[in-house]
Write a structure and sequence with these properties.
The chain is of the alpha+beta class and 313 residues long. The chain folds into 2 domains: 172 residues, Fructose-1,6-Bisphosphatase, subunit A, domain 1 (Fructose-1,6-Bisphosphatase, Chain A, domain 1); 119 residues, D-Maltodextrin-Binding Protein, domain 2 (3-Layer(aba) Sandwich), CATH 3.40.190. The chain has 8 helices and 15 strands. The strands form 3 sheets. Strands 4-3-5-6-7-8-9-10 form an 8-stranded mixed β-sheet, with helices on both faces. Strands 12-11-13-15-14 form a 5-stranded mixed β-sheet, with helices on both faces. A hairpin with a 5-residue loop joins β1 and β2. The N and C termini lie far apart (48 Å). Bound molecules: 1,6-di-O-phosphono-alpha-D-fructofuranose.
Length: 313
């Protein structure tokens, strides 16, 4: 696929881009449908009254009504789509059958990641993984596309269907237009995002962070996974870490709903994602709520993280 020129970029909408890229018809429709659903979720965020719903999700966290609405909106879209077989969301404890069983795709979602940031008006996002096989057959590597939508000052959508990672911006006419095509991270960046409390970090992780500090990396951490990853992608490099902690050996973030879709997008942009030893995309999930430490971003920093983590202190 040839790169689209700077002059015509703002006139290329998502559907045309995917068609030019030669993405298979049903996958194109599905990505389009999810991008459109992002507009409905954004409308919900705007009308949100920010009150707690008063119930808890499977991780025993307080759940904002907004998480629940975003989840319901996504599920209802897939229910009638004709090309989604299964839907699995961070907000629900089980895989939901939304199709007849013969549809091609299964979808995972973190419907509204970082929802606790909504009342502060920081950016939040939706993270999506698209799988070719049933999610219940969790032993296979099945991710064929991933995307996220950011709800910030602008609404943006980043997707990859295995042919590079591309960014679109929702314009005033309500169309997603191409803003960055085939985004490629530099070998090395200059920002770092640090999850978890310093007092809970393991010594080898601390050594890695001290290395970045000596090298003059700038701290950039919003507390929202989507905008934090988006910053690394759009600034062409850096590293996001949410490590194993003294009291939480698997860290905080969820493999299926958050980490693998982001790893897919960053890998397609020439970056890497690891838990310190294994490639995040190669980890076989054993349960829906499986978590994992993560080091994700440009190659230099992620390789360095692996080097530090392999040293026993
Ligand atoms: P919530 O969905 O509970 O708001 O958590 C957000 C998040 O999952 C992710 O978006 C952040 O990267 C991470 O948690 C931040 O965690 P800390 O609050 O421990 O820094």
């Amino acid at each position: 696929m040839e790169n689209i020129s700077d002059a015509t970029r703002g006139f290329v909408d998502l559907r045309r881009h995917m068609w030019i890229a030669g993405i298979e018809t049903e996958l194109r429709r599905l990505i389009w449908q999810i991008a459109v659903t992002g507009k409905y979720i954004s409308a919900k965020i705007h009308e949100s009254n920010r009150k707690l719903a008063g119930f808890r999700n499977i991780y025993d966290e307080e759940q904002l009504a907004l998480d629940r609405s975003a989840d319901e909106i996504l599920q209802s879209q897939f229910q009638f789509s004709g090309f989604v077989r299964e839907y699995s969301s961070e907000e629900q404890s089980e895989i939901i059958q939304v199709g007849k069983g013969n549809e091609q795709y299964s979808v995972t979602a973190d419907p509204l990641d970082g929802s606790s940031l909504v009342d502060t008006n920081l950016a939040v996002g939706t993270i999506i993984g698209i799988h070719k096989e049933p999610l219940s057959e969790g032993d296979k590597k099945t991710l064929v596309a991933a995307m996220y939508i950011t709800y910030g000052p602008l609404i943006t959508m980043v997707y990859s269907a295995g042919k590079g990672t591309h960014e679109f911006v929702l314009n005033r006419e309500g169309e997603y237009v191409l803003s960055e095509e085939r985004i490629m991270l530099n070998e090395r960046g200059s920002i770092y995002s640090l999850g978890g409390l310093r007092k809970d970090w393991l010594p080898e992780h601390l050594k890695f962070i001290e290395f970045l500090e000596r090298e003059g990396y700038k701290l950039r951490y919003s507390g929202g996974f989507v905008p934090d990853i988006n910053q690394i992608l759009i600034k062409r490099g850096g590293v996001f870490t949410y490590p194993a902690l003294k009291n939480k050996s698997m860290g905080k973030l969820r493999l299926i709903f958050e980490l693998q879709p982001m790893a897919f997008l960053i890998t397609q942009a020439g970056g890497m994602a690891t838990n310190g030893k294994e490639d995040i995309l190669l980890i076989k999930p054993e349960s829906l709520d499986q978590r994992s430490p993560i080091y994700i971003g440009s190659r230099f920093e992620v390789e360095k993280a692996k080097e530090f983590l392999s040293k026993t202190l």
